[in-house]
Recover the amino acids of this structure.
């Protein structure tokens, strides 16, 4: 939750990650596959073809959220593992409940 003391950058980041959390919660088959690929990547089990497909799906999610402009910035491609870590630093878990480890 934001407070008046939060800098504008933090407020914008929180808003972005909350929107991303909502988009990922819709859990289309493509999004589920993308999240599973990122989980395999973390375990060192995803190949380059799988990662390219997952990154493309993540780009589609960002575009559907209206954040397609982020994809043309020099630090692109933005990947979901980075987004997960940044979201956690802001206290926002962007993964849907079905993808969380029990």
């Amino acid at each position: 939750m934001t407070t008046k003391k939060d800098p504008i950058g933090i407020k914008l980041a929180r808003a972005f990650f909350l929107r991303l959390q909502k988009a990922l919660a819709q859990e289309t088959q493509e999004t589920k596959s993308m999240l599973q690929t990122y989980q395999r990547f973390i375990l060192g089990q995803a190949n380059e073809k799988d990662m390219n497909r997952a990154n493309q799906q993540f780009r589609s999610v960002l575009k559907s959220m209206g954040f397609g402009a982020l994809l043309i910035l020099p630090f692109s491609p933005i990947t979901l593992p980075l987004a997960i870590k940044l979201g956690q630093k802001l206290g926002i878990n962007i993964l849907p409940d079905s993808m969380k480890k029990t």
About this structure: Helices lie at 8-25, 29-42, 48-64, 80-89. The chain has a mean pLDDT of 77. Residues 28-95 form one domain.
